[in-house]
Design a protein that fits this description.
By secondary structure, the chain is an alpha/beta fold. It has a single domain (8-212), classed as Rossmann fold (3-Layer(aba) Sandwich), CATH 3.40.50.150. Helices cover 37% and strands 23% of the residues. The protein has helices at 12-29, 39-50, 70-77, 90-102, 132-137, 143-157, 174-180; strands at residues 60-64, 82-87, 108-111, 126-130, 164-169, 184-190, 194-197, 200-203, 206-212. It has a seven-stranded mixed beta sheet with strand order 3-2-1-4-5-9-6, sandwiched between helices. A two-stranded antiparallel ribbon has the order 7-8. Helix 1 runs parallel beside helix 4. The longest helix is centred in the first third of the chain and has 18 residues, at 12-29. The radius of gyration is 17 Å and the shape is globular. Residues 1-5 have low confidence and may be disordered. Its EC number is 2.1.1.-. One of its GO terms (biological process) is methylation. S-adenosyl-L-methionine-dependent protein-lysine N-methyltransferase that methylates elongation factor 1-alpha.
Length: 213
């Protein structure tokens, strides 16, 4: 889905306002907030990672655009110990930090704009993205250039050629992701729900695992 028109979903202001509201809800009601899309995809990715023998519980995992941090909370509850989440919304990072702290979980959170170089983050065995590439694609200002900058950052965040980049998208098909991610090679497709329309079968969301070329 090539969208060069942008959307408020691609602006930092939208997410700051949204997470400001969710922080209030969390403090008042203990509500961790909404899942942007496909609530089950987070668990599908966690279940898949648990089956990968080469990815031990000491793997360094980075969640890009971590939002409320619930993906990392899920991994922490499975025994993973080296977890980092980044988001360009300081309010998202504040909410994620509060949730982890209240659950006595050691998860590191940082504010980071992934369309800029992130030399201070280090490198990781697993880099996870659910919806962040989608949001970058909806940026009203030069989305194509921002996508390229984002992918260049991701490539540098992967520790070795065997490190995994796991992406779930609601905007891009598997073929489109493969075509755009020319510095990566597809390693695995995580099955996601399908639908039938006009005699053709499609996926509601796409979850693909890449490695560096």
């Amino acid at each position: 889905m090539e969208n060069e028109h942008g959307s408020e979903l691609g602006t930092q202001e939208y997410w700051e306002s949204s997470y400001n509201r969710e922080i209030r809800n969390y403090k008042n009601h203990g509500d961790v907030g909404e899942i942007w899309f496909d609530e089950d995809s987070q668990q599908r990715v966690i279940d898949w990672l648990l089956k990968q023998e080469e990815i031990g519980k000491q793997a360094r995992v980075l969640d890009l655009g971590c939002g409320n941090g619930m993906f990392l909370v899920g991994l922490a509850n499975e025994g993973y110990g080296q977890l980092t989440g980044v988001d360009y919304s300081p309010k998202a990072v504040e909410l994620a930090h509060n949730i982890a702290q209240d659950n006595n979980l050691e998860i590191s959170y940082k504010v980071a704009d992934l369309t800029q170089p992130q030399d201070d983050l280090g490198t990781f065995d697993v880099v996870h993205d659910k919806g962040t590439y989608d949001a970058v694609s909806l940026c009203p200002d030069s989305p194509k250039e921002k996508r390229a900058l984002y992918l260049a950052t991701v490539e540098k965040l992967l520790r070795t050629a065997d490190s995994l980049f796991v992406i779930t998208s609601c905007n891009w098909t598997e073929d489109e992701l493969e075509q755009s991610f020319d510095k990566f090679i597809k390693y695995h497709t995580i099955p996601t729900p399908t639908f039938k329309f006009g005699g053709k079968v499609g996926n509601v969301v796409t979850s693909v695992v890449f490695k560096k070329l």
